[in-house]
TrEMBL record:
SUPFAM superfamilies: L-aspartase-like (SSF48557). Keywords: Cytoplasm, Histidine metabolism, Lyase. It comes from the Bacteria. Belongs to the PAL/histidase family. Contains an active site 4-methylidene-imidazol-5-one (MIO), which is formed autocatalytically by cyclization and dehydration of residues Ala-Ser-Gly. The keyword Nucleotide-binding does not apply. The gene is hutH. It comes from Aquibacillus albus. One of its GO terms (molecular function) is histidine ammonia-lyase activity. It catalyses: L-histidine = trans-urocanate + NH4(+). Pathway: Amino-acid degradation; L-histidine degradation into L-glutamate; N-formimidoyl-L-glutamate from L-histidine: step 1/3. This is Histidine ammonia-lyase. It is found in: Cytoplasm. Pfam families: Lyase_aromatic (PF00221).
């Protein structure tokens, strides 16, 4: 059971909740803070003070005063009007992560919601009721308004949810679990949708997949090194210590460990003096991606425990301050950087695929074909890798450099962080397929060279793949193989 308090949720706990279905509950101390914050909202309503989001309109309507009797209707109108998301829904795991992050943010006690709201979010997690949330429609400032409005819809018994493997009306799922729809009161609708949890949730899931893929890419590259009889001198520690980047040093160390007892790799001068950059510069290129991953993880770790709605309530309600913590610029930049870094892992992997299949660049059968000419072998797999890499180059164009003013120019700079997070996630899916292709080609190459000469680590990887992907003895529908390896890499533990 994970205990949330709004302050110290970490990646290991998130993984346990979203991938292992571990339950969650709130700490008593955090719920006490929530109660204090809620009392402040109720005092504001009773005293009819004018405070943004509690008894005013939103955005450009912030100067419109809302009467006391209309405060609850204001929240319902807010959710209905802002539920404008379009497109395919976020993956269910992302929806689950959104629930977790939104509950954690509200537990900081700065948002003024009732304890009931947080308990319902936690019930959704524990009962695996996941709102159907369209991916498109957020500008990434004023929070992820449209996506989070769809999350809020499920709490009030509207919209749709994923429940026990089925997509259904939220009210049906609530009924099956004996839960009544919630009626939102003052500020609660705004507190639910004014935040960065869509981009942060998408970013967290993307990061976790990217980290795993980065580790896997090194092992796959090691098999390629064996298939091409690569020169391991380039991974010697002195070279990387001389440069000084710890991540580069670490990649080289892992490459040395993977290839420690290989009889297929070579030393400089045995076959050739130097390898091409896609082999020789693996630590430098992959290491730079690791630098980015560390940066991204740091920003997401902060955002997972951040209060990102507006206004925020401090000092038992003595201070209610309108600010801009809902602006997603920090995550937008991190997501753009993540997309670029993972696109580069795919970029260099595709070049290694080319070296495995191009007869002008190796001494293997052309395109690893069992009968060159009659059978095309891995020829078109390289085409597919090239296509995916090219697509990644367009997806890696930074979303954060764009901004379109909204709400009659009241909200005149936005982050587009949710677009960046979605693009980063798609880049990761494409990159994994490129690495799946490299895995197929590299294992075919070492099979030709002599599996018995492989290193211990790479031999284990080879045997695992061969348990469900056969060697290329004749042309077949290779898309099936690519998808099988892709799914395996997605499930497989990285280390």
């Amino acid at each position: 059971m994970i205990i949330l308090n709004g302050n110290d949720l970490n990646f290991e706990q998130v993984k346990r909740v979203i991938f292992n279905d571990e339950g969650v509950r709130a700490s008593k101390e955090s719920l006490d803070k929530v109660e204090e914050s809620r009392k402040a909202v109720e005092r504001i309503v009773d005293q009819e003070k004018t405070v943004y989001g509690i008894n005013t309109g939103f955005g450009k309507f912030s100067d419109v005063r809302i009467e006391k009797d209309d405060v609850e209707a204001l929240q319902l109108h807010l959710i209905h009007s802002h539920a404008c998301g379009v497109g395919e829904p976020f993956p269910e795991v992302v929806s689950r992560t959104m629930l977790l992050l939104r509950a954690n943010a509200l537990l900081k006690g700065f948002s003024g919601v009732r304890v009931l709201i947080i308990k319902r979010l936690l019930e959704f997690i524990n009962k695996r009721i996941h709102p159907v949330i369209p991916q498109q429609g957020s500008l990434g400032a004023s929070g992820d308004l449209a996506p989070l409005a769809h999350l809020a819809l499920a709490l009030i018994g509207e919209g749709e949810v994923f429940y026990k493997g089925n997509r259904m009306p939220a009210l049906h799922a609530l009924s099956k679990e004996g839960l009544a729809p919630i009626k939102l009161t003052a500020k609660e609708g705004l507190a639910l949708i004014n935040g960065t949890q869509a981009m942060a949730a998408m970013g967290v899931v993307a990061y976790l997949e990217a980290e795993k893929l980065a580790y896997q890419s090194e092992l796959i590259a090691s098999v390629t090194m064996e298939g091409l009889r690569g020169i391991t001198d380039a991974f010697e520690e002195e070279i990387h210590q001389a440069r000084g980047y710890q991540e580069q040093i670490d990649v080289a160390k892992r490459m040395r460990a993977y290839l420690a007892d290989s009889q297929l790799t070579t030393k400089q001068g045995e076959l050739r003096v130097q390898d091409a950059y896609s082999l020789r510069c693996i630590p430098q290129v992959h290491g730079a991606t690791w630098q980015t991953l560390i940066y991204v993880k740091d920003k997401l770790a902060i955002e997972m425990n951040a209060a990102t709605d507006n206004p925020l309530i401090f000092n038992q309600g003595e201070k209610v301050i309108s600010g801009g913590n809902f602006h997603g610029q920090s995550i937008a930049l991190a997501m753009d950087f993540l997309a670029i870094a993972i696109a580069e892992l795919a970029n260099i992997a595709e070049r290694r695929v080319e070296r495995l299949v191009n007869p002008q660049l190796n001494d293997l059968p052309p395109f690893l074909s069992p009968e060159p000419g009659l059978q095309s072998g891995a020829m078109i797999m390289q085409y597919v890798a090239a296509s995916l890499v090219s697509e990644n180059k367009t997806l890696a164009h930074p979303a954060s450099v764009d901004s379109i003013p909204s709400s009659a120019n009241q909200e005149d700079h936005v982050s587009m962080g949710t677009i960046g997070a979605r693009h980063a996630y798609q880049v990761i899916q494409n990159a994994r397929r490129v690495l799946a292709i490299e895995s197929i080609c590299a294992t075919q190459a070492v099979e030709i060279r002599g599996v018995e000469k492989m290193a211990t680590s790479t031999s284990t990887f080879f045997k695992e793949i061969r348990s469900f992907i056969q060697p290329i003895v004749a042309d077949r529908i290779f898309s099936k193989d690519i998808e099988k390896v892709d799914e395996w890499l997605k499930r497989k533990e990285a280390k």
